[in-house]
């Protein structure tokens, strides 16, 4: 009967990214292509991490080693992806069919890339767990935490969101040469991944990861031009568009009249 | 998730790695999540379905298996708790063997709260605490009894004086839930420990909350109803789709060996062959366990040891004798005399051991019922051991002995057996049973149905069986009090040897009319007993069975169940061992030591592991042991003339345990998921539509 767990956890973890994809990405072919391409870059990072892991046999038992290098590879490939789209900007302009928004607003591309990274990493971390949920049983027989499935789904969602925010922050940092921001992204990624080594202490790891998510989200909002005032403004009903009729210039003659 | 990363293949490596990247699991080398959820329990001993012409017996699970909350039963009050109080139905009952009775299972079935039963036999379990436990009925094989139809004065004997007083007929009942036997201590410990942790009601008898320990039992049987229906379905489906086995006839091979070669070129005189028979099959309710220590192995080993002894004492007088001995091991006798009825059917239509081959000089001669002089059957001789000697009983058939000629022949045979026993100094007392008492269930009955033959059935019981566990899982080496310790203090193998010695001495006299004590090889008896009853992967079996797949050899008692098909490893092994015992070594290498024709008087068998390669030449051969019912065109399945037993097909049987979460938790999780989806749709839609305000983007140009 634990098909219920499968659907519950699946919707919990993949609901938000799927909603983002459906509403903001799927409507635009360029964005879709960019999302898939960035996801491919994340996969490349995974491939290189795995090669390294295979090569360094003596450190295979040290998870921290694998973790740190995997994080560094991901950030490296995020950088390479950034370089690639910088080069490709001209071409992108040509194919964007007059819709120059994606080229002019750098944050849109950063968001699309981040979502690509997020979806693929979320999928890779959770799909195996999801596959095992479909049977009749749940975790806990051998003393493992009973809330393993929910914890996995919640953590996976946090990492998906984190990847989006890191994407925005990382690209912004490179554009503005704000190296402090760059350092924040890398350190935040290391910290968030590192803290999960404490699992199954979910009481510690999940709040930490989510605090980092909210913090990164706030920063991403700010660098993308938002603030609490713009959010507040957005919450008010939209003003009907004001038609600006050019006011006729008053001449001295008229005033004289 | 992500398989263990200890020795990763590139692919598992890849998965492993993904795992580290988001790092969800604990610090351990995480194996698949599945391994954290499910624990496999030994599940190879399932109760399965069998059919005869009119009925189905045994158990089956649903197609996707049966599952339920485990309740370990220690005493009657635990059962009552399940029926009266247990709120979490369906339950899977984990019972000790004491509770494996028709009453308990009937109650479980009627309660509607039980979806499966697991019988846990712990290592230190003592079967002596059990009451009636034999799976057979009071009158085994009574449907095909010699006396059933024709001799009313004897047919009622068994009902008044049951041959199998401990019989429960359990084997012949049909249950609507799966039943499994578990004897692996680790598996039993898992069940008991997790039951304590999760399911055991508290001191006030209140049930535990979810999550609860559950078990899934998988033993779906393909066949239903009865042999007629099931064979018809197999034939219909088989023509369109391959490999649909709803059911298959129980069948295997009988084994026979003639002491002196029987060549078709020399005419076989009437009444010249003494048949020495034993059966080599036993059965139980469960798959993969049918030790049959007394019901099958005792007679089988006695026959093998006697055949070996007689062969070693084969002198010129024996070889020139006009008489002959035919050793026969019957298969499938537990299931309405499959092997013996087939042999008799073949003999009656003149096709035994095979159809006569024209233009073939080297072939074994045809044997039919009139060639048989005596019939000596060894049937359950294991529990005849007394403090210092052995006591066995000689049963005879009152019907055929009403013929004076047969009667005098029988008398002569019985007297010969008794005197030979003292000649052989074997300390076996052979006591004649009242001649008015009909024969106990025995292969001999199949022969007497067609022809009056003098003969006797040697058993350890005068009236009811001494074997308390006839056709059950506890008819093992402990039941016959065998102690395998190199034979030093063991008396059982000596008992078997003495019986074999008395038998061999008798046979020698039958052949030569001379009296000569025949000594037997006691070490051989001990080895054979050990191999059959305790460890089939013993050295002797491995040597003779070098061509059998290695998976056959585990350190368990032999499975004596007849099973289906004709490639039963144990029958092959027994045939080859008999060939090794009564055959002679010939100087042929592995290439030339090949059987050229299955009709030849001599059959060849090569073993590379005996003395660096040995070729045995013997008269040992197998003949088909399948009920004639399956060979007779348009046989009436309800007629009750021949055995109609078939066994259902099935895929795999298995048991696993796991924790099942509460429904509330599951509903909560799904609701959480739905909320997550709706909330994110709302937020994303909002932010997307107000992106210009939130992020101060230029207003998108209005659509033209």
UniProtKB/TrEMBL annotation, chain A:
Membrane topology type: Multi-pass membrane protein
* Residue ranges that the Swiss-Prot or TrEMBL entry lists as coiled coil: none
In the UniProt record, does the keyword Membrane occur?
yes
Positions of transmembrane segments: 6-26, 33-56, 62-84, 108-128, 148-171, 178-197, 209-234
**Superkingdom field:** Eukaryota
Q: Could you state one GO cellular component term attached to this entry? A: membrane
- One GO BP: protein processing
What Pfam families does UniProt report for this protein, alphabetically?
Aph-1
InterPro entries, per this entry? Answer: Aph-1 (IPR009294)
Q: Where is the protein situated, by its record's location annotation? A: Membrane
Provide the alphabetized UniProt keywords. Membrane, Notch signaling pathway, Transmembrane, Transmembrane helix
Family in the record: Belongs to the APH-1 family.
Q: What is this protein called?
A: Gamma-secretase subunit Aph-1
From TrEMBL, chain B:
Q: Where in the cell is it found?
A: Membrane
How is this protein positioned relative to the membrane?
Single-pass type I membrane protein
Q: Which UniProt keywords apply?
A: Glycoprotein, Membrane, Notch signaling pathway, Signal, Transmembrane, Transmembrane helix
Q: Which domain of life is it from?
A: Eukaryota
User: What are the residue boundaries of the Nicastrin small lobe domain, all occurrences included?
Assistant: 46-222
- Gene3D superfamilies, from UniProt? Zn peptidases (3.40.630.10)
- Which InterPro entries does the record cross-reference, listed alphabetically? Ncstrn_small, Nicastrin
- Example GO biological process: Notch receptor processing
Name the predominant localization: membrane
Similarity comment text for this entry: Belongs to the nicastrin family.
Q: What is this protein called?
A: Nicastrin
Q: Identify the taxonomic lineage of the organism of origin.
A: Eukaryota, Metazoa, Ecdysozoa, Arthropoda, Crustacea
